[in-house]
Amino acid sequence: MLYSEIDAGEAEAIVLALEQRADLLLLDDQEARNKARRLNLPITGTVGVLLKAKNEGLISSLDGEIQSLQASGFWLSNSLVHALLPSTSNKS
After folding, report:
1. How many CB atoms lie within 10 A of CB 12?
2. Residues 33, 56: contact at Cβ < 8 Å?
3. Using one digit for the tens of pLDDT, what is the confidence trace for 19-63?
4. Which of 32, 64, 69, 70 could pair with 10 as two cysteines, CB 3.0-4.6 Å apart?
């Protein structure tokens, strides 16, 4: 049933996380994240990984990382970008 509702790769990741009792599952697709939440799986996404890296001093700034993601075609909502990078709210 899971395979008919979300992408096969994301379904496999969820199944593997359940089988292995994963500490954390990396998912960016909203529908897959919703399914994982319903299964009580701990999740984060690419942005969550970047925030953790920033908080641990592994990257100096989110700005360049977010721009690189967007330049590669990774979609982020404007509201999320503005929340992450408040200075972008003054740019057009």
Report:
1. 13
2. no
3. 999 999 999 999 999 999 999 999 999 999 999 999 999 999 899
4. 32
Three-class SS string for the chain?
Answer: CHHHHCCHHHHHHHHHHHHHCCCCEECCCHHHHHHHHHCCCCEECHHHHHHHHHHCCCCCCHHHHHHHHHHCCCCCCHHHHHHHCHHHHHCC
C-alpha span between 77 and 42 (Å, rounded): 22
50 beta partners: none
pTM > 0.85: yes or no:
no
- Rounded to an integer, what distance in angstroms lies between the CA atom of residue 15 and that of residue 2? 9
